[in-house]
Design goal:
It is built from ten helices and twelve strands. By secondary structure, the protein is α+β, with helices and mostly antiparallel strands. The strands form two sheets. An eight-stranded mixed sheet has the order 1-2-10-7-12-5-4-3. The protein has a four-stranded antiparallel sheet with strand order 6-11-8-9, with no helix packed on it. Strand 8 and strand 9 form a beta hairpin.
Length: about 375
């Protein structure tokens, strides 16, 4: 007997709440579904593909596009730095994404991070189950698809989160990946500082401007695991979204699947050995008054390349920050009036959480 088509499945009596409750109560995530031997995905993971079709007005020319790769090897030399700032400015304003090479973090540190993340996601089920929660106040937690309570379909991945805000106890991080996460996080701070300085330079501001407004004071580390999907044409690894951050720095493995939307086209962010992917978040678009772009991106599901691993670090102010964020005054003029209202970081995050990952939260704060 042939497997039912998507249309056949749409005619079935379906209770999303019940399916979601069963999924969450298993505390096994998407990987648990795969390990159970499923050959077709639950209906809650079937993705409406029409959501990803750009409007005709968004379509750009059918040219070959490639996310820029920026070499930081000469960042400490005056002439080399000027060229790097120009490349960062162009990438941040046109793509919203770029890849960094020769950033200073040894490849063995990057490899250890991905290996530690894999060891957790493929490791002791009891350890993962004990950490499984949708409670956002937990600084270390494992979960899958908490946003399904606000969305009509799920994403084909699981996540381990470490929310570094000063109150996180490192002993709460699973021992199998604790050292690799902490080592990487410590070294990544230097890269984030350099990137913030380059972005400040690219805006024509003092190089410590973004640091002075606490743009990278808090780090939110998310280890994603995308298991092979039995029906990759029906699912999506991560649906299209923009990031709730000033800056996001991503380490991805060699599997691929990350795409960024540029000129109405989906462009692959091809894995580069040892590279870090940088993308502009909503809050940097806000303070730059649309000079820099926070763009939609997504991750495809796959069935043949094995699990995909990535580690995203979101840089932001502390949630307790009382200073409102708005377009930087030095960037404004009669010809460039403010596009956004001032907003507290926690108010932006509350709105982002209420809207769900598919919404463009930044639009809510336009004047």
């Amino acid at each position: 007997m042939a497997a039912p088509s998507v249309n056949d499945r749409s005619q079935e009596i379906y209770d999303l709440a019940k399916e979601l409750e069963q999924f969450q109560s298993s505390k096994a995530g998407v990987k648990g579904l795969v390990d159970s031997g499923i050959t077709k995905i639950p209906k809650m993971f079937i993705h409406p593909k029409e959501d990803d079709i750009p409007k005709p007005s968004e379509l750009g020319p059918a040219t070959a596009l490639e996310v820029p790769i920026i070499d930081l090897s000469s960042v400490d030399h005056k002439q080399g730095r000027m060229g790097i700032v120009q490349k960062v400015e162009k990438a941040a304003s046109s793509y919203g994404f770029f890849q960094l090479v020769n950033h200073g973090i040894p490849e063995n540190v990057l490899d250890s991070l991905l290996e530690g993340s894999r060891a957790f996601h493929e490791g002791d089920v009891a350890v993962k189950s004990n950490l499984y929660t949708t409670d956002r106040s937990r600084k270390v937690r494992y979960f899958s698809n908490s946003r399904l309570y606000k969305s009509a379909f799920g994403n084909w991945h699981d996540s381990l989160i470490c929310d570094f805000d000063g109150s996180l106890d490192a002993n709460d991080i699973p021992v199998v990946c604790r050292k690799s996460i902490i080592d990487y996080k410590q070294q990544l701070m230097g890269v984030a500082k350099t990137v913030c300085e380059l972005l400040s330079d690219a805006l024509g501001l003092a190089k410590d401007h973004l640091a002075s407004i606490n743009a990278a004071q808090k780090q939110f580390v998310v280890c994603h695991y995308y298991p092979p999907c039995p029906e990759p044409d029906l699912a999506v690894g991560s649906t299209k979204h923009t990031d709730p951050s000033f800056l996001t720095i991503l380490l991805q493995d060699s599997v691929g699947g990350l795409q960024v939307c540029n000129r109405g086209q989906w462009v692959d962010v091809l894995p580069v050995r040892g590279a870090l992917v940088v993308n502009i978040g909503d809050l940097l678009q806000l303070v730059s008054n649309d000079k820099f772009r926070s763009v939609e991106h997504r991750v495809l599901a796959n069935s043949t390349k094995g699990p995909r691993l990535s580690v995203a670090t979101f840089f932001n102010p502390l949630r307790s920050e009382e200073k409102p964020y708005g377009p930087i005054k030095e960037l404004l003029s009669d010809r460039n009036p403010p596009i956004y209202q001032d907003v507290l970081f926690r108010d932006y995050m509350m709105h982002f959480a209420s809207e769900g990952i598919t919404a463009k939260a930044l639009d809510h704060f336009k004047l």
